[in-house]
Amino acid sequence: MKKITLIIVMICLASMKGFAQIPVTDAAAGGQLTALNTSAVKAAGDRASALAKAVATLQQLTALKKQYDKTVEMVEDISDYVKQSNQVINMKNYLTDITSEYSRGITYIYSDKNISAKDRAVFQSVYTKMVGQSLDDFEYGTKIITDGNLKMNDAERLTILSEVEAKMSKNKNMIRYFNSSIKRAVAQKTKGKNQEQFIKENKNSFNKIRD
Question: Where in the sequence is the signal peptide annotated (predicted)?
Answer without folding.
Answer: 1-20
